[in-house]
Amino acid sequence: MRTSLKLLVLLAIAVAAALLLRDSSGYFMVVTGDERRTVSLAAGLVFIVIAFFVFYLVFRLIGFLMDAPTRIRTWNQRRHTRKDYDLLERGWVELLEGRSSPAEKDLTRLLNRSRDSGRQALASLAAAKAAHNQARYAERDALLLTAQSKAEGNPRMQDAAATIRAEMLLEQGESKQALALLEPLAKAGGANQDHIQKLLLRGYKQIGNQDKLLDVARTLTKKGAIDDFEGRRLIEHAGAAVMKATTRDSWANTWKSFSSAEKTMPLIALAAAEKAQAAGHADTAGQILETSLRNQIDARLLNAYVQCPQEQVNARLTKAQLWLEKDENNPDLLNALGFLCLAAQLWGQAERYLTRSLKLREDPRTHSLLGALYDRLGKPTEAVKHWRFASASISMLPVVAGEKYLPAADTRMDPDGPPDRKRNDAQAEAEAEQGDAAPAKAIYARRPETDEEYFDSAPIPGIRAEELNEKP
What sequence ranges are listed for the domain HemY N-terminal (predicted)? Predict the structure, then answer.
């Protein structure tokens, strides 16, 4: 569009100049020495325009010839750059496809032929990744050293080299070396901070540093850099581990460091309640568990909640009944109520809660509690039945139908003495029938009659039977 407008403007100017010069009586006179040459104004203007274009083309040609070496150099550099980019692109595509061996070959070729230090550093890092995927760690380390040397003077490339090296060390299980590279990068606050924090999270998880793992998980979850469910799971497990590692005197300060949302997480609340219980603060332990249970009914928390001193049973039973009004068909909550009723010696309510829990879900713990209840009530048959169900559920034993007890063993054909009694009697009768015939070689050594009850049919260690038979 712009070109068309330019042509229209030039055409209008040409038409206007032609109309003006058509009726013009002006002329050009060129004086050279004694000669005078006169031409019309139109011819003179045309000559001037043609001369201008001729001189312009001549000077452009001269400039082009003088700039030819630079142009050739630039063209050659562009050609090399294009080939470098082609190799780099092909190597990265092969690496992303999982073809590490051809990727390493192309990237190493790029490293050897490229004249740009930045592309050499990038090719070295990618080739190191390909070598790492093939478990060729010696070549990987050599390529990483090359990348670091090529990245001198380029801070971003140096950070990238350190990050990639740390990531590969984490995959290899060298967590301490990886963290030594990552922690300075995290303090510097580079552009890839989220990625570094994720690598730190992985490293702290490998070495079991729960304190730092908790801090990094909080940061990433708050920024939305990781999935919310994964972040909450990491915070819960790390927080519980930190809570368990506290001493009897410092657990309260650690508990205060958690946020309100973190205090309701089941594992953290359970660990804090255990610490409070161990420190002799049963009321505090109950409050911690109640806060978490109001947010979410959890079987682990209920099992800890029902383990309380006798003077707190009624209060906890009342609160558990309020929770049941909101969730009437929760088998774990019914089981906990049955336990508390047993502790409070409310036999009827305990039976009702436990029976309702069994209707909703078969559970060995519920059967055990019912067995204990019926044993207290003097119903041994019912108690034994529920204890059997509980034992079969826990031990994965088959339920035998039919007889309640195994039948007595038939001992009518059993010997009335030691295992070899019949055999010795049969051998003595055979020898008596043979009379003066040569006695057959005995297999076992003979003992006096008084020791027959303790006779062992096995040969005496270290003595061969032939030696015993040859004795007079």
Answer: 26-134
